[in-house]
Amino acid sequence: MAKWGEGDPRWIVEERPDATNVNNWHWKESNASGWSKDKLNELLLHFEINSPDKNLSVKIIEFDKLEGEATANNRKGKLIFFYEWNLVLKWQGTILNDEQKEKVKGKITIPNLSEENEIDEIDITVTVDESNDKSEILKQFMYKVGRDKIREQLDKYIKCLKSDYAKNLILPKKDDAAQAQTKTLPANHVTSNKAVINDSNIKAPSTEKSEKPLGVKLDCKTLLLEEKFQCKVSELWDCFSRIEPMTAFTRGEVKLNFSKNGEFVLFGGNISGKFTEIVDNKKMVMTWRYKQWPTAHYSNVEMEFDDMEDHTLLKMKQTFVPASEYDTTRMNWQRYYFDSIRATFGFGSFLY
Question: What's the confidence (pLDDT) of residue 170?
């Protein structure tokens, strides 16, 4: 834990182009839902799929459903993406050698486009509005060929989300800016009053005087929260003590050794800590930190589980939270822990 009067040089913000978010340490979230809808429209609307012999042709004509959300999170310079979409597309197809040239219509349902699934794990269901010989031919074509083509378009969306949309989310660091400026200077460039000097006859400044410590004092605060859940104590306890439910509500890989001195790692390594006290279904105490906090600085989290008449009351006390991260920490406990637990397991919210 950082000591008073000592500091981490990475906390010095003078002359940094990114002084509002030093070295991208802060948890920064960007809503990519609007951008995603535009991109999915661009990639899928009017998209055509043709057979190798050009005899079968299918075109997506409109969206019947485009529901979901996408966010991009910057945590200490690391981008983490969450997206979840439920898509229903209307299509129409033609058998070109058919003399009547009748249009066959149907729908494509994609219920699970999310970061939890690899591109080949995304479910794609194809249906037809009217069943007949021609519609069955086109339906089989869409199952054998069309679904792979659509997955290619969905893969483009994911890659664009992680490259085009995300390119402005990580702010430049001071060193990056300096290196970029150096690269643009001509070989014979000399500034009027800040020239680079390389002369072995010039002595380095004396280091006899004691240097002042770098950094700033770490101002900390205590976070107090109370949350009600419509479930049994044992059900809520499992969310914090068992790897399966924890994986479900965090929507990512979890490393968990739920025992005294056992360690845990969540959210791609951005949250980690160690259990220091466990009283089954009553109380757990742990050291806990965000990866972007100063090196080796841990907060202390104490959770108490109270079995009420018709719900479970969770009381949480978190000490040694960096003051600059207090509001963000409160918000992220609410969103990524408590609200996610309610949404995942149906534990409900109270309106009073």
Answer: 54
Closest CA to 335 of 116, 112, 79, 73: 73
Cα–Cα distance measured from residue 292 to residue 98, given in angstroms and rounded to the nearest whole number: 63
- Residue 345's contacts (CB-CB under 8 Å, 6 or more residues apart) are 231, 235, 239, 245, 248, 249
DSSP string spanning 221-280? EEEEEEEEESS-HHHHHHHHH-HHHHHHHHTS--EE--STT-EEEEGGGTEEEEEEEEET
Q: Which residues contact 25 (CB under 8 A, 6 or more apart)?
A: 10, 76, 292, 293
> Which has more confidence, 76 or 137?
137
Residue bearing tokens 């948890």: 27
Question: pLDDT confidence of 53, banded at 50, 70, 90?
Answer: confident
User: Which H or E run includes 331?
Assistant: helix 326-332
Phi, psi of 93 (to 5 degrees): -135, 160
For the cut 90, the answer to whether the pLDDT of residue 100 exceeds it is no
As to burial, measured by CB atoms within 10 angstroms (0-12 exposed, 13-18 middle, 19+ buried), residue 32 is buried
pLDDT at site 190: 43
pTM beyond cutoff 0.70: no
DSSP 15: T
d(CA 339, CA 333): 8
Find the DSSP H helices in 164-232: 174-184
CB 162 within 8 A of CB 119: no
With pLDDT > 90 as the criterion, what percentage of the chain qualifies?
50
DSSP letter (8 states) at residue 339: I
Say how far apart CA 276 and CA 261 lie, in whole Å: 5
Alpha helices in 129-242 (DSSP H): 133-141, 147-163, 174-184, 233-241
